[in-house]
Write a structure and sequence with these properties.
Blueprint: H1 7-49, H2 57-84, H3 87-91, H4 94-106, E1 112-117, H5 125-146, E2 150-158, E3 161-168, H6 184-194, E4 198-203, E5 209-216, H7 232-242
Parallel strand pairs: 1-2
Antiparallel strand pairs: 2-3, 3-5, 4-5
Length: 260
Amino acid sequence: MAAGFTDDARFAAWLQRTRESERATLARELHDELGAILTAARLDVAWLAAQPACHAPQIAERIAALQRVLTQGIGLKRRIVDDLHPTLLTHLGLVPALEQLLASHRTRFRGRVSASLDPSVAPSGEPALALYRIVQESLTNIHKYARADFVRVSLRRVRGRIELSIDDDGVGFDPAAVGHGHHGLAGMRHRMLAVGGQLDVAASPGTGTSIRASVPMAARPRAVASLPPPDRAVADAMSADHGRPPHRRLPRGDLSNPQP
């Protein structure tokens, strides 16, 4: 067993990978199936809008309202799909995916967001996904809890490693006092451990929060996939706990397809 990679850590890494696989499957289903439904509805509404009988002011107004609702639904579907499985990360890489994530955060964040992202930093696979999820989780926490006026995200190369930092000037917290049931920081650490990286958090009440994640440039996942998964009873219990059977796997769709 690799040093520092305990049974609990290996099990947590297995859960992370299982969760990401389920999220990718759900994203494909939403993209392909819900996308087809919304596309058909939009085409039907466009056809109705072109009919002479629908030019009456009251009918035209209702059709226009329906078109606005469909546009909102398409936008919501795209946001959900990107949250579940970042399309740009798969097709264009980490920096474009982070730029899109930060742009989305700016629309909801009351303060200022600054970014310094080295475009030459291009990890792939699990290291890239781990870094992306850390930024995503951090921005979500900042939006919900930090009451920050400023956020800065940095991605760069430093002596053969990729270093990610997320800093805010919010209310901060005491990492030692994070209660049971709050697993965000533990999840981030397990993500880094699974790809041979590390995570450091500096925070205290009233002084903001700084998160540092670091992985080797040639980071590869730790040997977790070769480990046997939890026994079938545990897997079945996990499915029952979620209240649903395992996802049905559809043929892989192209999430870069501009279909709504």
